[in-house]
Every structure is written in structure tokens, then in C-alpha cells.
Amino acid sequence: MPQSALEMAKELTMAFFETGNVPAEDMQDTLQRTHATLTALKAQEAAGTTTVPVSNALSANWRKSITKHAVTCLECGKPFKQLSTNHLMMHGLDGRSYRAKYGIPRTQSLAAKTTTARRREVVQELRPWEKAPMYRQAQERDGKAPAVAAPAPAKRARKTTRKKRSEG
Known about the structure:
Layout: H1 5-18, H2 27-47, H3 57-60, E1 71-72, E2 79-80, H4 85-90, H5 95-102, H6 113-126, H7 133-141, H8 162-167
Antiparallel strand pairs: 1-2
Helix pairs in contact: 1-2
């Protein structure tokens, strides 16, 4: 007995979820998109249409591709914590061309929201601008002591190999 489109969509969505390809908060959207695609395919099959229109549902709204825990590649549909340059190169794109293709603003991070938030926290903790020579010079010139003195780089003793130790 053939399955209904809803049953097939449910099974596919559960398989995506179990393999970690779909975060829990995106299950409903994935189920709806899968059901719509299967329904359209069944209608085409019934009508005898052999051509399948290429439609990327995610490309319609790039905002849905960036969630709290994952960012979904609009080219292949795979979720990541961030879209790396290496991954985009697999599609023949770079960050700029990917953003242009899907209408994503250049200031929008291609990383999950939690990843972006964590990076922001780390930068605020480390305050790298205070360690920059230009910042420190300006602080000294203005008579202000730097809030955090940059630690001097620690000198490491060179490691010697066993062969050198035994010879020397």
C-alpha cells in the first residue's frame, strides 16, 4: 500500500533529525517544505510531467537558513555551525558571491547565532584593541595608563631531539 505524502514527509524529516541534519527547532519548517515538495512531485507524476522544476525553498528566505544552533547552506541544504570558505569553495563561491547570490547583507555573519554570540563574548573579554600598539601609544600620549597591559610574549626553550641530547 503506497504511503501518503504526509507519512513520507514525516519519515524523511525524522531521518534528517536523527542524523543531525535538522535542528529540533527547524523540524516543523522542514516537515512542511518536505510535504509541499512531495505533494508537488505526486501531482507532476499524476499529470505525467517528467521535468522537475528546480526550486530551492531555502533561497526564498535566507533568514530562515540562519538559526540559533545552525546555518544551512542554501546551495546544498546541509547545516553547519558556520559556512566556511572551504565549504563555499566546493560550490564555486566565496562569502561575497554567496551573499550576493542569495541577497544576504554583507554585514550578516554566515554562522549560527550562538556561534556569533560566543565570538562577541570572547572579544569583549580579551579586548584585543587594548593590546594593539596604536591604541597603547594613544593612551600613553593622552596620559592614560592602558587598562590592560599586554603581556610580554613568553620565550620558550627550544626543544632538542634525543639525537642531539645524546651527541652533546
